Amino acid sequence: MIGKYLELIDIEFNKRPLLYVTVAFMLGILAQDQGILNPFAALSFFSASILALLVLKKKALFFLLLSAFFFAVPYAYFRESYPPEHLKNISQMFDYRRVEITGVITEDPEIITSRGAAGIILEAESVKLRATPKINICGRVKVTLKEKIDYGALNYGDRLTVYARFHAPAVPKNPGEFNYRKYLERKKIFLLGSVDQETGDSLEKIGVGHKNPFVAWTIKMKHHLLKVIAATTPGEAAGLVQGVLLGEEEALSAERQQQFRDTGTFHILAVSGFNVALVVAAFFFILRLLKYGKKFSAATSIFFVIIFCFITGCSPSVVRATLICVFALTAVLLERDADIVNLLALSALLMLFIDPNTLFDIGFQLSYISTLGLILLASKIQKYIGFLPTWLGGALAVTLAAQLFVAPVTVYYFNYFSTLTLPANLCLAPFVWFSTVAGFLQAAAGTLFLPLGSAIGFVNAFSVKAMFVVVEFFSGFSFSIYRFSSPGLLFFFVYYISVLLLIYFKDLYQERPAFTVVLLALLSVLVWFKVFTPAAEMEINIMALRSGKAVLVYAGKEAAVLYSEGKVDSYEVGRKILPLLHKKGVNRLSLLIYSAELKDYLTEFRAKELLKLSELDTKAFKIKGENGAVICAGGGGLLAGSFKQQSFFIDREKLVFGEDRRTIYFKETKKNGAFTAVFDGKNWKSGYFKRVEK
Question: Are the C-beta atoms of 60 and 111 separated by less than 8 Å?
């Protein structure tokens, strides 16, 4: 069986050495990120190299892999080096102090319509503290302007002076909390600031700094197109058209965005390979219809697809699709055949060479993994459903192939799976296609003659409203989202092997039927074993919040109780409390005890039972979970429980647990991080959460 898989791999990739080189380069970047002597990275690369040498019997490829790996390690390290005056080395000195920073805007500001704010990225030039001369610095700063501005009010290349409080991104203090600091560091951002003019902050444009004229022109064109779409599309529909065409998902309300996330259709709000393919098709085939030569049409299409890439902000999915289209069109110019897997690998290699940190971008990973799924699975799936009409079978095969490959990544990062993603995507597909094509026509026509663009936009709005109806319908089901705890590497290995086995099952079954069935059954058990295994531990998490208190008692998905008290805002709910629940795979809380400050977010917790903090003395709940776990709340107390003959109790000041009555006070969590106590049936293990940073 293993030999059969290796044979399939050899058949698929025997003529594609770029794929192996790209994988080796990725492993080198991972080795550098985790530490050059990281055992896992070294073992993974060593295994892959031996496989290439012994199975494929290509010594040249083996040494090529070695070269790619060992080049990537120092190269990625070099790209992470910074001079002494860089913000990475001095960011801790700011510590929420009000200072004046001068810098140049390095990219198009992000207009956050739903919150009436804007995000600005500055390349810092100098900083001035009170009564001290300016100090030259360098590095990127993210400034949040708490004020609604129009597109073009602040532009790429503007030099600004910002007077506000600045600070280094905080290190996460709670398990499951998104590591925003690491995320920003990947993007070379090491300082944050917030400008609220009502509190004395200020932002002033003082001139224009260095900028790329081509990039400046494409951003100006983007602003023009956004304004045309807004002027020619009625109501809320404009926000979705802007998202579908130009990736401006923030133009939609937060509620709408959540509906798209819950149905697994949020990807349609991001510009994708479909948009790029549409641009190429439009220019290439129109020029061919006008009797221009194939090479001229290809060269012209390359020019316009590059412009489109910059207009949409060069997201990983667009860059990937753009590079593939450029390579494919270049093959037309050179009269050579193009191989999609080679092009895919080459585009990834170029993106990683430009910026190794792109490897850790979720958009990059999802884009390439979904494309790989389409290449490997779409045609195979379509054969299985050949009884369906071609248009329906093709749409179903493409959607299913992409979803099968990206589902584990979604679970890993976001701890959820949308159970209705397949029917939702199929229902949306024709409307997305229509709105994308109509949107391009609308923007082009509106640029030439606004009333004509408005007429097309009026028709397009019906398609957009249909999309809203679809996502509202599917997101309304209580089972639209299912939560999973974070899977390990074994899950990924078993999952992808299982998917490939299912797709190639017919060929393999004909050769070794009994062994194939047994292997499939074993893999299925391994995949679902963790999901349905009863909880073997009881865990108590006292979270580190700024002002409020939050305690999660978890003893399996059927016994999860959350207590919240004090000032808790949307940021702490979305970035700290909910991620902890999601990390544990909690789809619905058994009980939520809440204060007035949390009442606006109750629906996000999907609790089976709700108890107001003011009713703790008059009502009581007893939650029974797996393995004899019991959690009690109310009735004059706060939280108490037992697990395998060991008990605990929590009041508003402390947690007491274990036979030795160990006591931990909540106030210590604000300084030291979240406190976690775990009982496995024999021993209590406890400690403060610490995020290890390099």
Answer: no
Name which CATH class applies to 87-211: mainly beta
Task: Answer for the pair 566, 597: CB distance below 8 angstroms, yes or no.
Answer: yes
Cβ contact 450:232 at 8 Å:
yes
Tell the residue number behind the tokens 């936009």, with chain if given.
Answer: 457
Q: Which of 304, 262, 294, 285 is nearest to 418 (CA)?
A: 262
- Whether the per-residue pLDDT at 160 is higher than 90: the answer is yes
Confidence check: pLDDT of 3 > 60: no
Cα(141)–Cα(608) distance, integer angstroms? 43
What does the domain layout of the chain look like in residue ranges? Answer: 2-79, 87-211, 224-264+420-486, 271-350, 361-416, 489-532, 538-688
Contact 173, 674 (CB under 8 A): yes
Contacts of 599 (CB under 8 A, 6+ apart): none
> In whole angstroms, what is the distance from residue 291 CA to residue 286 CA?
9
Mean pLDDT (the chain) is 81
Q: Give residues with Cβ within 8 angstroms of 227, minimum separation 6.
A: 151
Q: Please state, in angstroms and rounded to a whole number, the distance separating the CA atoms of residues 62 and 27.
A: 14
pLDDT of 633 strictly over 90: no
Crossing angle for the helix pair 450-475 and 421-448, to the nearest 10 degrees: 170
CB 345 within 8 A of CB 295: no
Q: What is the pTM of this model?
A: 0.79
What whole-number percentage of the chain has pLDDT above 70? 88
H helices of 312-417, in order, are 316-334, 340-354, 362-373, 379-384, 390-414
pLDDT score, position 692: 45
Phi/psi at 545 (5° precision): -120, 165
